[in-house]
Amino acid sequence: MGYVTRIVIIGGGPGGYEAALVAAQLGAEVTVVDCDGLGGASVLTDCVPSKTLIATAEVMTTFDSSYEELGIIVADDTPPMEQAARVVGVDLGKVNRRVKRLALAQSHDITASVTRAGARVMRGRGRLEGMQALDGSRKVVVRAADGSEETLTADAVLIATGGHPRELPDARPDGERILNWTQVYDLDELPRN
C-alpha cells in the first residue's frame, strides 16, 4: 500500500483529536470530521462539565458547613439564628452557563491546537462510501449541517466515534422527572428531589 499520507478521522473526541495531532506532526494530510466539537462528549458533556459542577457543589458544601466556625458573617438573606435553614444557595442557571462556557472554550482550544498542527477540521457527519479502491484508498462522504456533502479520499480511515450511555427501557429520560447527562446542564434551578 505504500505510505499513508491521507488520513480521515471520523470523530473528534480524545481518541480522534490525539490521533490527528500525531498524524499531522508526522506529516500526514489529516482531516477530522466531527459533528459536535472537538473534545467529544468527554469535553462537552461528560468529564469536564461534571467535574466543574462537582467542584461548585464542593465549594458550596464546605462553605455551608463551616462559615460560622470561620467567623464569616453572611448579611444578605441570612435566616434568623432560631430558624434552621441553609445559608448557601446556588443559581443553577448561572452555574450551568459557566459549565457550558468552559467546555466550549476547551473544545475551541483543542480545535485550534489540531488546526495549528496542520490538520483540517470539518463540522459534519462522515460515512464510508463504496468499496476500497485498488490502491487501498477509501472514500469518506462528509455531510455538513447545511446538508452539503464533500467526498474525501483517504489512505486510512480511523473511526473514533466514542460511545454513549445506555438508556434503560423503564427509565427513559423525559427532561423533567428523569434527566440524561446533557439535560442536567440545561436546568435553571435545583430540582426538589
Number of strands: 7
Biggest sheet: strands, sense, closure?
Answer: 4 strands, parallel
Bulk shape = elongated
Describe the strand arrangement of the main beta sheet, using strand numbers.
3-2-1-7
How would you characterize this protein structure?
With 193 residues, this protein is an alpha/beta fold. The chain has one domain (6-186): FAD/NAD(P)-binding domain (3-Layer(bba) Sandwich), CATH 3.50.50.60. Helices cover 32% and strands 19% of the residues. It contains four helices and seven strands, in the order βαβαααβββββ. The protein has helices at 14-25, 40-44, 47-66, 92-116; strands at 6-10, 29-34, 120-123, 125-129, 138-143, 149-154, 156-159. β1 (6-10), α1 (14-25) and β2 form a beta-alpha-beta unit. The longest helix is centred in the middle third of the chain and has 25 residues, at 92-116. The N and C termini lie far apart (59 Å). The relative contact order is 0.21.
Topology:
Elements: E1 6-10, H1 14-25, E2 29-34, H2 40-44, H3 47-66, H4 92-116, E3 120-123, E4 125-129, E5 138-143, E6 149-154, E7 156-159
Parallel strand pairs: 1-2, 1-7, 2-3
Antiparallel strand pairs: 4-5, 5-6
Helix pairs in contact: 1-4, 3-4
Explain briefly what this protein structure is:
The protein has 193 residues and is an alpha/beta fold. It is built from four helices and seven strands.
Could you name the key traits of this structure?
FAD/NAD(P)-binding domain; 4-stranded parallel beta sheet; 4 helices; single chain; alpha/beta
